[in-house]
Amino acid sequence: MNKPTFVEQTTTSSITINDCQRWLQQTEFLLSAPTFKLCPDDTGLEVAFAGRSNAGKSSCINAITNQRQLARSSKTPGRTQMINFFHMGDTKQRLVDLPGYGYAAVPESMKQEWQTELEKYLISRKSLTGLVLLSDIRHPLKFFDEQMLHWANDGNLPVHLLLTKSDKLKYGAAKNTLQQVHNHLAKLNLPVSVQLFSAQNKQGINELCLKLATWLQFNPTP
Fold it and tell me: GO cellular component annotations, sorted alphabetically (predicted)?
């Protein structure tokens, strides 16, 4: 059964980047689910972070929340097998760190199990309002990245693509890669927003924070 079409709302002018930063800095760990069946109640709104196991998901979540150890990264990429949930003081607004894919030195049967759970989550989760897909700017849009984009498009799920580790390239090279990815997505007819991102030098954090505020319908209290 397809997810209902999600109409993205625009952020209001009353929301400032400082509001968004304070909101995200309240983020706390909620729970880890080893399978889709053990996820929290499918209510409220949540945004998921997905990507290859070495794309920098944990570093991204830690950077936008300004917390070094909130999302813990394994020394061995791909060993994080749980669906990890976080909330910003309100459990009806959640961030979700999905298991990494494509890189892990684990048995093929385990990879297939992860992929099955990931697909169940993306297709069936009603509270999922957006997907942040992370892709290393030096090796953007590998096969499974594009598969994720097509799954999301088929389910009418908005996607925001982060070209991570942009600090590894010079400014001109990073901008050229950004344009190439834009062109490639246009050829695939995939309506995906794209930005440069670096957890190391904080590039792109404000843009991502505002995107999350939009998807999670954040409204600052007076």
Answer: cytosol
Q: Mean pLDDT over residues 23-48, rounded?
A: 94
Q: What are the tokens at 104? A: 């892990």
The more confident residue out of 142 and 14 is 142
User: Within a 10 A sphere around the Cβ of 149, how many other Cβ atoms?
Assistant: 22
pLDDT at 79 over 80: no
Contact 183, 222 (CB under 8 A): no
CB proximity list for 122: less than 8 A, separation 6 or greater: 48, 128, 131, 148, 151, 152, 155, 157
Q: In angstroms, rounded to a whole number, what is the distance separating the alpha carbons of residues 106 and 143?
A: 19
Give phi and psi for 159, each to the nearest 5: -125, 135
- Kindly state the average pLDDT of the residues 146-157: 89
Measured between alpha carbons, how far is 58 from 84 in angstroms, rounded to an integer? 11
User: DSSP assignment, residue 41?
Assistant: P
Tokens in use for 103? 């890189």
Domains of the chain, earliest start first: 17-216 (3.40.50.300)
Q: CA 20, CA 209: separation in Å to the nearest integer?
A: 6
d(CA 97, CA 57): 7
Ramachandran area for residue 59 (φ above 0: left; ψ -120 to 50: alpha; else beta): alpha
